[in-house]
Amino acid sequence: MNIIRYPERSEWKEILKRSALHTEDIRDAVNTIINKVRTEGDRAIIAYEEQFDKVKLESLAVDETEFKEAENMIAPELKEAIRQASANIRTFHAAQRFESKKIETTPGVTCWQKAVAIEKVGLYVPGGTAPLFSTVLMLAIPAQIAGCKEIVLCSPPGQKGKIHPAILYAARMAGVKKVFKAGGVQAIAAMAYGTESIPKVYKIFGPGNQYVTVAKQQVSLREVAIDMPAGPSEVAVLADGTASPVYVASDLLSQAEHGADSQAILITTSEQLLEKTKAEVERQLATLPRKALTELSLRSSKLILVKDLAEAIDMVNEYAPEHLIIETQNYRDVAEQIVNAGSVFMGPYAPESAGDYASGTNHTLPTNGYAKAYSGVSLDSFIRKITFQEITKEGIRRLGPAIQILAANEQLDAHKNAVTVRLD
Amino acid sequence: MNIIRYPERSEWKEILKRSALHTEDIRDAVNTIINKVRTEGDRAIIAYEEQFDKVKLESLAVDETEFKEAENMIAPELKEAIRQASANIRTFHAAQRFESKKIETTPGVTCWQKAVAIEKVGLYVPGGTAPLFSTVLMLAIPAQIAGCKEIVLCSPPGQKGKIHPAILYAARMAGVKKVFKAGGVQAIAAMAYGTESIPKVYKIFGPGNQYVTVAKQQVSLREVAIDMPAGPSEVAVLADGTASPVYVASDLLSQAEHGADSQAILITTSEQLLEKTKAEVERQLATLPRKALTELSLRSSKLILVKDLAEAIDMVNEYAPEHLIIETQNYRDVAEQIVNAGSVFMGPYAPESAGDYASGTNHTLPTNGYAKAYSGVSLDSFIRKITFQEITKEGIRRLGPAIQILAANEQLDAHKNAVTVRLD
Questions:
Q1: How far does the CA of residue B391 sit from the closest CA of chain A (Å)?
Q2: Looking at the 3D structure of chain A, how many domains does it have?
Q3: Is residue A417 located within the same domain as residue A333?
Q4: Rounded to whole angstroms, how far apart are CA atoms A335 and A357?
Q5: Does the first or last residue of chain A, that is N or C, have fewer Cβ atoms within 10 Å of its Cβ?
Q6: What separation in angstroms does the CA of A267 have from each of A110, A255, A274, A356, B28?
Q7: A373 vs B: CB within 8 A
Q8: Which of B113, B359, B416 sits opposite A96 (nearest CB)?
Q9: Domain range holding B182?
Q10: Which of B357, B367, B378, B397 to substitute to test the interface with A, most A CBs within 10 Å?
Q11: Contact A30, A214 (CB under 8 A)
Q12: What InterPro entries does the record tag this protein with (chains A, B) (predicted)?
């Protein structure tokens, strides 16, 4: 871990820089796969699954037998934990439902917004060593609450041609009926364009490696919407001398274990906490199974000492972390001053893992500083707000003359005329 | 205008197709400009303004004298119309403020969302023949209500090196302090990367030609967020035999005058209305100053006769128009069934021009079928919702065991450990 003491503001930009994403280099390779899926459909998916996931598939859709098998393979304690997490995610996202209000802006002119679910959404759940069933819950539960009619989920099969049972169990539990064996770029392309088996959707959600990220970007240029641009996961811990170095170290480590490119940063006002945390990271690291990977990621992590809390808050807002954990004395006051972050964890008993799994908040969050412009996934991500307006005869009489003047000044006479014919 | 009677559902896709956007062809040209602005800053902008807008600029920022001059040039009746429109836009968007609710998902686990303004936003207002001061109001007023700290506006100067006075007047009225003379790709690049004069922003809004559209897409791949992908403007009118052909024709024409690539579609259940509308379009067209341009755009417009209202509604939802005008007997019932549209105008006295200028709804809306996945611009577009969670000792005691099980099953032991240290 890199220790930085009292950096000048002019140095912040360099210190807080993320590792560059080399997305341009792989764009052509990604577009080749996208185009092949677009023209050849299922056949291309099956070929790419053989090439990349080393599995020969007969068909792409997960059938009822596989769902049943999966359910039987899940331990009761995991089922109960998934149920508890789901209930909290459901409670929090259901409370985000939009309530429409009719506003009379001028007598006879009534305007309102109505929330309508995106009809078809696609969820991507990566494979790899860890089965990310928590991501299934985080995406499928709000999609279901929003009322999306068609929820499609793609995830790469393991070497036996099956999707991990915990992913299938979570999907079924969250109301997803259509699950397909497809990973990487080919899965994104399939949901963007549709194939014989996999339906085309209007918006694609979910994490993935840099190939998936680029594929989502490429299809978002024309075909579909995407949840947000993605980058490696990251946490900032803002702590003062009252924080527990044991907790802080565990939080930094839980971010670091995600992968070599993920970033964990401590911003603290206390030299003592910094030193103790450093020692504690080393102590806890020794006990972790993913030690080698975590160690690699810690190399780019930083422990930063700043002169006071105000500076610490400024630095957090400049960094705009995906996750922010505040372990300070008056953590509520500090939280009030945060303007750039994906999700904020307040106080000593709120580790990032709580939000990653089970507190109810969504774990799909803006990385790479995107928190300055993007929100994390929420119920909003699965709806659109359509505006409506109803205008009475009195309404157009009152509003019409202004519209005529405005339209005439923009030299749009037919716009003016649409009012004139109604006023006559 | 093309008349299509009782098309089969299998033909809908072809009938409702938009004209293709050839964005790939100009991508390299756009990226060249972007890169030059990125490396050379103001100097590049000044050079491009000379090349494209035929104007030699000394400086880019609009100064106080120019704002004052502009204000003096605006007729009192236009000022009053702008004031009236602004008041309605302000009323409707202010009513969209997000009210945060704290949700206790589990005893001791409290989660909430907080709306925070995007700190720096950039608004692009195209030049060309018509000064789009209404776009200034539609973007700057919600930015101001949201509380964006820095609102930057770029618009190309006319041949005398000045921005149209109505744009400057509207900008000042909506609280924009920083206005710059820059148009097209160079303006988008300036706001994405920042130059000596023009500040970098986090999100860029506003319409433009295909070059601006591609520039926004390109910078959105890495640097900034954008409001939404853009395409030519469009309207669908859904009408039955009770509708006035005079009103319907005026609505189709007010869309058609936007440009040769804009699309106006009538979907009706009444043969008689169709025929009368056709005749009325020709009659009204003859009186319009933009006759030639409007005629060109009408060539790709369509009058479609369908068998009943249910089919008409299905067709609208399949088309997902930017603007939808419903002129039918029970227009409220019909409006209830609309799921894909940008903005909906209900009843005989609600022409699209009302929403374009003054009713209060936003006129920055999803075109090109994007209404299936995107909302129009609203107060939401200028904020992010950050999630917060506060967990007490009791909260982690109740939630911790589930998190431990879930993390262990995703093979993320450091995630589990962050809970374990807190339960001990």
A1: 5
A2: 3
A3: no
A4: 22
A5: C
A6: 50, 15, 9, 21, 42
A7: yes
A8: B113
A9: 24-226
A10: B357
A11: yes
A12: Ald_DH/histidinol_DH, Histidinol_DH_CS, Histidinol_DH_monofunct, Hstdl_DH
